[in-house]
Amino acid sequence: MTDTPDGLQLTPFDEEFFKDPYTVYRLLRRHDPVHQDENSFYEQSWTVSDYKSVKALLIDGRLSVDPRSIGLRRDPRVDNPVTLRQPDMMNLEGTEHKRLRSLVHKAFTPSSISRFESRIEEIVLDCLNKITGNSFDIVSSFAKPIPTIVIAEYIGVDAADHLIFKQWTDSLLLQGYPIPTEAQWAEIVAADKAFRDYIRCVITDRRKKRRDDLVSRLIEAEDENLLRDSEIVDMCYLLIGAGNFTTTDLISNSIYAKLNTDSECDFHLAIEETLRFDPPAMVVRRYVTQEVVIHGKTILRGSVVNLLTAAANHDPDQFHEPDSFLPDRDTSGHLAFGRGVHHCLGAPLARLEAKIALQKFAERFPNARIESSKRSKRMDFRGFQSLVVKV
């Protein structure tokens, strides 16, 4: 490839990108780090790939996370109760975002998460104990069930309902694919309704008897007239995507990287290097509310900007030997969880889950080796559909 990558060449639907996105990112970063997309779903679209620019734009007040700021919908693909719903906390700005984030932040403090650490270890060990045979798929038997169960229990889903919660989760995550079929949209809408109805029942139950879970903590805020029922439901719904399949990808990506690395390393450092080297989320989307000039190029109001955080994390101007997995390096500047007021709220929980999962897996299967792997084709995200190991 000699031309600057554009359009589908920057998605998993291009085979060259699918096999190795970082080579494609490198070409873009070298030749056109602030690139105006010629082939895009949006009328005015830009893709930014160098570290300095991505980092700056992540905290630039002229760019918004709310598509309504430039007259767009959150999800314009089809019209249904899911796509037409108003934005949640992730896509809000200003006082509303600050209000909601400050309330849910109390459930993600280090002390709140540390209280859950022993339970995460139990969940991880239980998944390991269920693995049989000397060859198995890490994704389906280990990386996928761990965050599903953790998020379910963290929210307040009873153990007896974990299976149906997993079914709803699997259905809702179909939204991560670019063009769901009509049948898949029907499945998404049905799961959306069932989950929201369930959480409303949980809210009713927790009003009668509080527990040490997210719903109970949010009800306390509601009792102070700070939060509405619908917002509690939205918060729980948001966690399914934000804290579920991305953590699955982080666990499988870290195990894959570790099994391809001979050196021993601290598991926390290995997770941080995975977040830099092969992160679950590849891009962050922003909407331009005021004209921006960067690298001598003018990005007009109304434009959509794709900030390639994964490409920025491979910028040699920021990281030495960026295309090598080096767990001992200083990764403190990586952009896997974003920056500024929209920095990922669930990052501490994701880090803890992934660290425990990687450590316990390595202890249980010290001689594991990769037999086969198949990457998933999801827009803006990178993980495995399957990762089979022999132990």
Question: How do the strands and helices of this protein lay out in sequence?
Answer:
Layout: H1 15-19, H2 21-31, E1 34-36, E2 45-48, H3 51-58, E3 63-64, H4 94-105, H5 110-114, H6 117-129, E4 135-137, H7 138-143, H8 145-155, H9 162-172, H10 182-208, H11 214-223, H12 229-259, H13 267-277, E5 284-288, E6 292-294, E7 297-299, E8 304-307, H14 309-312, H15 347-364, E9 369-375, E10 384-390
Parallel strand pairs: 2-8
Antiparallel strand pairs: 1-2, 3-5, 4-10, 5-8, 6-7, 9-10
List key phrases describing it.
391 residues, alpha+beta, Cytochrome p450, 10 strands, 47% helix, globular
Task: Give me the count of strands.
Answer: 10
Which CATH class is shown? Answer: Mainly Alpha
Overall shape: globular
User: Mean pLDDT score, rounded?
Assistant: 92
| Strand order of the biggest β-sheet | 1-2-8-5-3
> Could you list the spans in which at least 5 consecutive residues all have pLDDT below 50?
none
Helix content: 40-55%
Class by SSE composition: alpha+beta
Supply the CATH superfamily name: Cytochrome P450
The CATH architecture designation is Orthogonal Bundle
Largest sheet: 5 strands, mixed
- Count of the domains: 1
Report the radius of gyration as a whole number of Å. Answer: 21 Å
CATH topology: Cytochrome p450
TL;DR of this structure?
Helix content is 47%, strand content 10%. By secondary structure, it is α+β, with helices and mostly antiparallel strands.
Can you put this structure into words, describing what you see?
The chain is an alpha+beta fold and 391 residues long. The chain has a single domain, classed as Cytochrome P450 (Cytochrome p450), CATH 1.10.630.10. It has helices at 15-19, 21-31, 51-58, 94-105, 110-114, 117-129, 138-143, 145-155, 162-172, 182-208, 214-223, 229-259, 267-277, 309-312, 347-364, and strands at residues 34-36, 45-48, 63-64, 135-137, 284-288, 292-294, 297-299, 304-307, 369-375, 384-390. A five-stranded mixed beta sheet has the order 1-2-8-5-3, with helices on one face. It has a three-stranded antiparallel beta sheet with strand order 4-10-9. A two-stranded antiparallel sheet has the order 6-7. It starts with 14 loop residues before the first helix and ends with a strand.
